[in-house]
Task: inverse folding
């Protein structure tokens, strides 16, 4: 199993349409990728850092896939469509990181 972190950076000029993200983008991701190995989709909203400052990544999606190969194949098949949807809800580029279990 792998965990793909999709992290949306914050900043003074960053915009994010949460209603579109939750109502349109995430359903699109699930529709395209569930049959291709996508398991759990966990969405988190950053509130602040321990010192009270704004979070570096106000929104993160944590996507589990059965394997790196499944993620790569899903991305190849539908990545262009999914990434083309991003400007419809934010003006920032997400940072992606592929993670695997430790230990």
Result:
């Amino acid at each position: 199993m792998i965990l793909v972190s999709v992290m949306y950076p914050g900043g003074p000029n960053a915009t994010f349409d949460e209603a579109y993200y939750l109502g349109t983008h995430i359903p699109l991701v699930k529709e395209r990728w569930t049959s291709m190995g996508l398991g759990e989709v966990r969405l988190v909203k950053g509130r602040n850092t321990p010192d009270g400052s704004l979070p570096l990544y106000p929104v993160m999606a944590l996507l589990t896939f059965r394997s790196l190969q499944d993620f790569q194949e899903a991305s190849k098949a539908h990545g262009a469509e999914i990434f083309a949807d991003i400007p419809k809800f934010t003006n920032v580029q997400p940072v992606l990181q592929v993670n695997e279990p430790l230990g």
